[in-house]
Each structure stands twice: as C-alpha cells, then as structure tokens.
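User: Fold this; tokens only.

Assistant: Input:
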Amino acid sequence: MLTRFLCGVAFAALSVSAASADDLPTAKSKVTLVFDHVLPNVPGKSMKGVLVEYQPGGSSPAHTHPDSAFIYATVLEGAIRSKVNDGPEKVYQAGENFAELPGDHHGVSANASDTQPARLLAVFVVDSDAKNLVTNDK
C-alpha cells in the first residue's frame, strides 16, 4: 500500500510542469518542489515532494532539513551517493530508497556518475509552516 502511494506521488511529481514548480537551482543540480499538501488527519503537518536532478558529476552541499522533517527518498534515475550522519557513504541505484530522520545531517548527496544524469524524489513529512526545506552547512 505504501509503495503504491509513493509511486503515485512519484508519478505526480514527474507530471508537474517546471513552469508551475518552485525551482531552486544550484551548481550542476536542480531542486524542484513538485508536491505540497496539508495532511488533513495530522494537524500541522504537510507532505512535500521534492524532485532533485543532478547533472553528471553534480552534487548538493552538505545540509540539514527542518527538525520536524521525516524524509523518504527514492532514486528515479541513475545512481546517488549519499551519506547521512556518521553512517557509511552508500550508492543507491534507480529503484532503491533511503530515509532521513528529523535532525539528521546529510553530508553527501551527489550523482555517482560523471557521465549520466541522476534524479531522486524526496518526500517530506514536515511542519506545514516550514518554508526552507534545506539549510546548507556554512
């Protein structure tokens, strides 16, 4: 059931046009808010879908998310290198997924390939009033 739901969110995310999305470009990466909906049965919480697209060799700076955020990420295309907290750096292939708990530090988020693009869908359950979903390390 959860898999069907997340696949539905992924499909919806890929169906949203870039013109209607909130684009936040960074070097060799593009982050687009593609889904934002208040959870009617969980007061104060929303589900937000974020499509992360990496060009070959692209990455995001080390970062954290809001303290209220639980994140479920699925690799849609290519392969993603990821390191959360003090855990090992791992490579996730298309179809694989990982989670980030509230307060986690995402030290590495990068395309594992220098020749192929990569995309992932990150689904946040977060406080509805959270506007900034990513805070880069200083």
